[in-house]
Design goal:
The structure is a homodimer. Helix content of chain A is about 60%, strand content about 10%. With about 110 residues, chain A is mainly alpha-helical. The two termini of chain A are about 20 Å apart. Chain B binds a DNA duplex (30 and 30 nucleotides) through helix 4.
Chain lengths: ~110, ~110
DNA sequence: CCAGACTGATACGGCTCCGAAACGACCCCC
DNA sequence: GGGGGTCGTTTCGGAGCCGTATCAGTCTGG
């Protein structure tokens, strides 16, 4: 189902959503953190550090550090892969799901008002 | 003209656009910087430091610093207000307009493919 | 003409993030 | 069972941003 945003609509949407993210008192996630979080919740598991690094085109430490900070916020969790203990599996959390649900609501509401 | 994104569409759109921003080799703007830039280009001038700080709900130094960094990238310019020399007027640049034009294209293309 | 209000900029200490390199833990297979 | 490769993590110096407090320049009203 195509959405077909015009140039002005696209920028207005991005502006209003960014503004609402800045103005609420949640800790701002960086664009990289947001990309990681959305990838974890939208794409099929399993998710590994290396896989995410490849998908985003960034280095592994970037992923490790982003998981550290988002783990402190309880947006994601890490667990060792028992099949191959070198791997770390990144998992979703209730808080993370709620966070993205609210984000989707924000985007949806703003898109309807444009 | 309502856009009416579903939850999954909203998150997919945000995911794909964020991902494309991470993957291109431009320096990532923070969410605050992006909000400032979009405000300058979407809302009617004049734009002052104090006005932007109020609009975003942040302190004045945040605006000054964001204008410093985006000024280095030539996305915005500053000029003294000759009517009231206490004020600084923030102005658009060609590079800034092109940057946002490409962003709008990205959002538009992705929205059409969802 | 000058005290006080108001502007944007700056100093400071602290926190986060970055990229590159090195690290320990682990698996596989000869 | 041991060497080579693959994990994710850590370390290091450097850079950017934060909030608070303070600054110098400018305006305005008595």
């Amino acid at each position: 189902m195509p959405v077909a945003l015009t140039t002005a609509q696209a920028l207005t949407l991005w502006h209003d959503v960014s503004l609402s993210m800045v103005k609420d008192d949640e800790p701002d996630l960086s664009i990289r953190q947001m990309s990681i979080l959305l990838t974890i919740y939208l794409e099929a598991p399993p998710h590994t550090v290396r896989g995410l690094a490849g998908k985003l085109g960034v280095s592994k430490p970037v992923i490790t550090r982003a998981l550290d900070s988002m783990g402190k916020l309880e947006l994601v969790t890490r667990r060792r892969d028992e099949k191959d203990r070198r791997n770390v599996l990144i998992q979703r959390t209730v808080k993370g799901a709620l966070y993205l649900e609210r984000l989707a609501d924000t985007i949806g509401n703003i898109s309807r008002s444009i």
